[in-house]
Design brief:
This protein has 262 residues and is an alpha+beta fold. The strands form three sheets. The chain has a four-stranded mixed β-sheet with strand order 2-1-7-8, with helices on both faces. A hairpin with a 4-residue loop joins strand 3 and strand 4.
């Protein structure tokens, strides 16, 4: 029975990877300067969860990852209490826990994406973003919380939970968060909301959902991605809407299958 469940998860994961990534890519000038896109977020903030689940995937769907350096910083509105450098989070201990888990995942698998070949087609495979997206999606729907959420996402994304658990149990997880704390503290201008989206050191404030247009404006290379040349990006969004719906459906099936195996 367990072998059938494992096979189902494997098949669904393969389908998820295929439907979330374009099967053909435009060649971009690698010497062109990429756009720095940094997201400062809280793992249990509903605004951050909605942005990660529904908005940020556009960077992948619209084939912008070729021109973006994406960084995710899971710290947000957390703060340090003296004298022991105790980290407190806006949404409580559960958020501090997930901030630590996602900091470990980013450290262990630092690449946001990687390319590989499958059936002679180039596929972009999300690495730590796929995990972070999965956790945000589960938390947004309150399907599973805390440990069950991230461990089921570990199965779904095929990123082993063992090194993540080891990282969390060690002092390294706190060390990572303290680094993020220092970076967030020295933001100029200081962040006023989460998610705090910054493009080439320019904060978008409350206009973060329109990050695609800011990325296109900031990119100076050639050729421009098709998403940047489509009027108001309407046709690009329309062409990807079906694939996004399939993605969320498959993600739901994977979540259920992973939960049954636990």
């Amino acid at each position: 029975m367990a072998s059938h469940k494992f096979f189902s998860i494997t098949v669904l994961t393969a389908l998820l990877s295929l439907c979330t990534n374009a099967l053909s890519r435009t060649e971009y000038n690698c010497s062109s300067q990429k756009v720095d896109l940094t997201i400062y977020y809280d793992t249990l903030s509903p605004y951050c969860e909605e942005f990660i689940v529904y908005e940020l995937p556009k960077a992948f769907e619209l084939e912008l990852m070729h021109i973006i350096n994406l960084r995710l910083v899971p710290y947000g509105n957390a703060y340090i209490q003296e004298p022991n450098n105790t980290i407190s989070c806006q949404n409580g201990p559960a958020e501090c826990y997930l901030n630590s888990i996602e900091a470990c995942v980013i450290s262990i698998w630092p690449d946001v994406v990687c390319s590989y070949f499958i059936i002679s087609l180039t596929v972009m495979q999300n690495k730590h973003f796929k995990f972070i997206h999965c956790v945000a999606w589960q938390n947004l729907g309150r399907l599973q919380l805390k440990e069950h959420a991230w461990k089921s996402c570990s199965k779904i994304t095929m990123l082993s939970d063992k090194p993540v658990s080891n990282c969390y149990k060690s002092r390294y997880a706190k060390k990572l968060l303290l680094r993020y704390a220092n970076e967030t503290k020295h933001l100029d201008p200081p962040h006023t909301n989460v998610p705090w989206v910054v493009i080439n050191k320019r904060p978008l404030y409350y206009d973060y959902k329109n990050f695609v247009s800011y990325v296109c404006e900031a990119y100076q290379g050639h050729p421009k991605p098709s998403a940047c040349t489509t009027p108001i990006f309407s046709s690009a969004k329309k062409s990807n809407s079906t694939r996004l719906h399939i993605y969320y459906y498959l993600l739901h099936l994977l979540s259920c299958a992973a939960f049954l195996i636990n």
